[in-house]
Amino acid sequence: MTETPAAGAHMRAELFSQPETWARAAAMRDEQALLPASGARVAVVGCGTSWFMAQSYAALREAAGHGETDAFTAPEFPFARDYDAIVALTRSGTTTEVLGLTSQVKGRTPVIAVVGDTTSPLVDLADTVIGLPFADEKSVVQTRFATTALALFRASLGESLDGAIADAAGVLSDPATTDPALGEAEQYSFLGMGWTIGLAHEAGLKMRESSQSWTESYSAMEYRHGPIAIAAPGRIAWAFGQVPDGLEAQVRATGARFVQHPIDPMADLVRLHNVALERAVAKGLDPDQPRNLTRSVILDD
């Protein structure tokens, strides 16, 4: 008789494997060379989690001086604009909007697909394919594929991932480094600046998907322009990386808890993954099969 896996068993195994998958991605020099060269005008597209990772990659690439880089959710791609290349990020390679976009630009703009499933339809449509099958997942809620793709992107820009990998391993090896109270808030606002805005959006999505929690996410500067009104006792404002001067004091003045960890922001996202998992399980939910969600959005004709 086959035993039914415990709730969140796949998500747990996958999120805990992230230091290993990041190291593999960082070592993929040949694959990194397939990404757009410095100076190219690039669009990065995806849906859901992949869109947020696209935002982070675009911000990092442009800030590093490698050229104009825009990020779009696939159905909002501006076809009237000219790009030297499109990077399409998708775990499944079956998302309707990404396949449609790739078909529409075929022969006009090269598409570089970064995929988890290397047998997917996108593989035959794209001009170039970078496969990350070792980071593919069984859980509907994404963790390692998204961050492994971002590790690949960061390494391609010349970043060392050693610190991020060590920070993530530290978070996962010692549960005592994560305050259990982080999973008990009434509401969460996730904040970022620059490339970590994408991480903040992804953190909010992870908590919503896995534990049906009330979450919001913002640029840390924009948070002051209205959203801080939601801050109150029993609620958390969680910042990834640096924040503007004075923001912590403003949050604390509301009675809300301000959270910021002095580690690589991508490793702090791993901490959030674990908090989301434990919060979901404590509520009797299974983040491997969240309510109303499937592994890929495939629309009927």
TrEMBL record:
Instruction: Report if keyword Zinc is assigned.
Output: no
Single Gene Ontology BP annotation: carbohydrate derivative metabolic process
One term of GO molecular function: isomerase activity
Q: PROSITE patterns, from UniProt?
A: SIS (PS51464)
CDD domains tied to this protein: SIS_GlmS_GlmD_1 (cd05008)
Q: Tell me the ranges covered by the SIS domain, including all copies.
A: 32-171
Sorted alphabetically, the keyword list is:
Isomerase, Repeat
Superkingdom of this entry's organism?
A: Bacteria
Q: What is this protein called?
A: Sugar isomerase
Query: What organism is recorded for this protein?
Result: Microbacterium bovistercoris
> Lineage in the entry?
Bacteria, Bacillati, Actinomycetota, Actinomycetes, Micrococcales
